Amino acid sequence: MSSPSPLSPVSEHQQRITDLVGLLPPTTVPLAEAVGLVLAEPVVAQESLPSFDNSAMDGYAVRAADIAGASPESPVVLPVVADIPAGSPVGDLSPGTAHRIMTGAPLPRGADAVVEVEATDSGTDAVAITAARDAGSFIRCAGVDVTAGATALPAGVLIGPGQVGLLAALGMHDVVAHPRPRVLVCSTGSELAEDPVPGSGQIRDSNSAMLAAAVEDAGGVALRRLWVADDVPRFLETLDAELHAGVDLLLTSGGVSAGAYEVVKDALGPRGVEFTKVAMQPGMPQGSGRYADTPVVCLPGNPVSSLVSFEVFVRPALRASYGHPRPHRPVLRAELPVPVTSPPGKRQFRRGRLDRATGTVEPWGPAGSGFLGWLAGADCLIDIPADVTELAEGDQVDVWDLSGG
Ligand SMILES: Nc1nc2c(c(=O)[nH]1)N[C@H]1C(S)=C(S)[C@@H](COP(=O)(O)OP(=O)(O)OC[C@H]3O[C@@H](n4cnc5c(N)ncnc54)[C@H](O)[C@@H]3O)O[C@H]1N2
Ligand code: MOO
């Protein structure tokens, strides 16, 4: 009898999946669809921000020299010769006069300070100014924020609302970014019911809904949710019909272990996809490779194994595929309030609940891979190294924060 092949370390399989999916080539994306993506090229400002000198306050545009020495006891009174609402064209201010100006309105040529309305009597024909202001007061100078010709955003920046705001202000309608990976999600198993009420021995397909949600949550696009029975020719026919140039990854669940009807393994194993056992629990049986030139990742069918495997292997690969600066979940340290055991030689990912106030993490539910109810109540994964089999109350562990990204 041949000895079983050694289990692959988690880190090795992680790298394999990240390499398989790769970095998607950059494309032009409308700004309205760019949030959550990563700039593939720097953005050079074609304009300055602000593009003209303007007022930072509602008040009066003046020459600082004209109001030097103004105080509540001896106000300086100036005629108000113009009113400048925001949106007005740039005007000209003569010495010894004031223009009433609103926040954001263009500073008239000849003015070098704005006096806020609170330091005046709010006059409309003439204004009494009760405080001196230095030249430059309450003026937002052209280019003080962003200078035309400068790099407004470097490549590699994650586009969030602030970046969208800046790009919109600069008049950019689209950006060059790595696109969201498009993932075809496919569940397998003859036990999965097509009818809303499962028949005898049948269950609902929860994995495709769950994995599609995980894809979207990772920043990808879940293209379709397919379900295929344990029937190799039908499975291959379905893939041949669905796989096309627009699919960046095929993600299957189920049919990868050692049973008599392992449709994914039976169909794709002879066609170049490699099936391995990874030294982890849950999620030991895994598959990866290419079919019809499309990257394929085959996850185990047990729902907890499926989602934990997605977290460990697929989510970081998807995020890396569009250049995300932080492909991995944040890892924290927390204290166990109870002892925990772990199988020898396997890195265990126990579901947990993190209490940030006390810095503790409680294992949430049993270690088994079918406990979807417990999974849905967890907010983190407790990462127990492969060489650790026992942890005592009070021990510190690494925790993957599933609420963070
Ligand atoms: N003799 C052995 N048996 C098993 C081994 C092994 O090494 N030797 N490995 C076990 C481990 S670990 C796992 S994990 C599972 C993986 O099995 P498969 O990937 O082949 O998955 P299935 O057998 O198709 O299903 C397992 C389980 O999950 C349920 N399932 C499957 N798909 C869905 C879905 N879309 N939605 C909801 N639930 C689903 C399925 O009904 C089964 O209960 O194999 C162990 N066995
Ligand atoms: O390794 Mo399996 O994924 O736990 O049930």
TrEMBL record:
Cofactor requirements of the protein: Mg(2+)
- Catalytic activity, as annotated: adenylyl-molybdopterin + molybdate = Mo-molybdopterin + AMP + H(+)
Mark the transmembrane ranges: none
Q: Which GO terms describe its cellular component?
A: cytosol
- Which top class of enzyme applies to this chain? transferase
- What does the record give as EC number? 2.10.1.1
- Keyword Metal-binding among UniProt keywords: yes
| One Pfam short name | MoeA_N
Instruction: Recite the UniProt keywords alphabetically.
Output: Magnesium, Metal-binding, Molybdenum, Molybdenum cofactor biosynthesis, Transferase
Which is one GO molecular function term here?
metal ion binding
Pathway, according to UniProt? Cofactor biosynthesis; molybdopterin biosynthesis
UniProt record, GO biological process: Mo-molybdopterin cofactor biosynthetic process
Start and end residues of each MoaB/Mog domain: 184-320
| Family the entry assigns | Belongs to the MoeA family.
**PANTHER family named among the record's database cross-references:** GEPHYRIN, MOLYBDOPTERIN BIOSYNTHESIS PROTEIN
Tell me the function of this protein: Catalyzes the insertion of molybdate into adenylated molybdopterin with the concomitant release of AMP.
Name of this protein: Molybdopterin molybdenumtransferase
